[in-house]
Structures are given as structure tokens and as C-alpha cells.
């Protein structure tokens, strides 16, 4: 056992080897309930989102990625975390961990800010989702609305329960 006079342990100073990639998938809807999807240059549709940077909260990552990809501005307080999705299908080397989030309020109009990746953003009726969905985006949409007709797959969903603040 260490005593208060001893230096803190160096055990946790170095991170372990990476075994997973953490990202945030962002569901954002307009006043009509349509969900925002971007057409990736590869021909698949996807939600805004991307990796969570070191030291960044999931809510901050969702807001940052939304702004970087669409120019929509939101506040971290308007982000609801729905759950965690573990997916080992899209990569044999890493487990993709996607935190499904919903942005409850935003300002602006979606624009293409990364034309090398996304050719356009469109508001889409949830019951008319394209079949060509990026697998992690489909998983996030399924976490948001389990009844949606999106491809299912071998992944694990963990719904979050709200804790009192």
C-alpha cells in the first residue's frame, strides 16, 4: 500500500495498445422530423459524425463533428446520448465503438463543408431511408428508432439510462 508521502504510481501513465475506435454518430432532425443524411463519394448515405478526440466528451465531439461536416451549430447541452454500439464487422483489426447521439436543437442550414467526402446533405423521411447506408450510420439510426427498416447486423447495442443530474 502506498502512503500519502509516496509519489503516485506510474502504472496508468501510458495508454494500452488500441483495440477500439470511438466515434459519435449524430442524428439531427428538422422541424418536420426528417433526418439529415449525407451522400458520401463512395455512394453510401451517412449521418454526420466522427471520432471522439482525446480529452473530448461525446457531446462535444457530436457538436464539433456536426459543425465540421455540415456547418450546423449546436450546443453540447442539446445532445442526448442514446447508447453505445460495438461493431467488429467493419474492421478485423479494431472494434468500432459508436456512441449514438441525437441533437435536439441547432442553428443554420446544412452545407457541404468537406466536398472530398460528402457531395450533398439531404433531409430524409425516416420511413424512406436509402438502402445504401453506411453500416455504422444504420446502426445509430436503429438505436434512435428500433422500428426503422435498416439493415441489421452482428453488433451489440447498449442503451443508456438517464441518471439524475
Automatic annotation (TrEMBL):
Gene3D superfamilies with a match to the protein in the record: Nucleoside Triphosphate Pyrophosphohydrolase
Superkingdom of origin organism: Bacteria
Cofactor dependence: Mg(2+)
Coiled coil: none
Keywords annotated in UniProt: Hydrolase
A UniProt-annotated Pfam family: NUDIX
Record GO terms (molecular function): hydrolase activity
Keyword Hydrolase appears in the UniProt entry: yes
InterPro entries: Nudix_hydrolase, NUDIX_hydrolase-like_dom_sf, NUDIX_hydrolase_dom
Domain Nudix hydrolase: start-end pairs: 19-147
Protein name: Nudix hydrolase domain-containing protein
Amino acid at each position: 500500500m502506498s502512503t500519502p508521502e509516496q509519489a503516485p504510481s506510474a502504472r496508468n501513465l501510458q495508454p494500452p495498445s488500441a483495440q477500439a475506435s470511438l466515434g459519435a454518430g449524430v442524428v439531427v432532425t428538422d422541424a418536420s422530423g426528417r433526418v439529415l443524411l449525407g451522400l458520401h463519394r463512395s455512394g453510401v448515405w451517412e449521418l454526420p459524425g466522427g471520432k471522439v478526440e482525446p480529452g473530448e466528451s461525446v457531446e462535444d465531439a457530436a457538436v464539433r463533428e456536426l459543425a465540421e461536416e455540415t456547418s450546423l451549430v449546436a450546443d453540447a447541452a442539446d445532445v442526448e446520448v442514446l447508447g453505445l454500439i460495438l461493431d467488429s464487422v467493419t474492421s478485423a483489426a479494431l472494434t468500432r465503438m459508436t456512441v449514438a447521439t441525437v441533437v435536439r436543437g441547432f442553428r443554420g442550414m446544412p452545407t457541404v463543408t468537406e466536398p472530398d467526402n460528402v457531395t450533398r446533405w439531404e433531409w430524409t423521411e425516416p420511413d424512406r431511408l436509402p438502402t445504401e447506408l453506411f453500416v455504422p450510420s444504420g446502426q445509430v439510426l436503429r438505436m434512435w428508432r428500433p422500428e426503422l427498416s435498416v439493415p441489421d447486423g452482428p453488433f451489440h447495442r447498449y442503451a443508456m439510462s438517464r441518471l439524475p443530474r
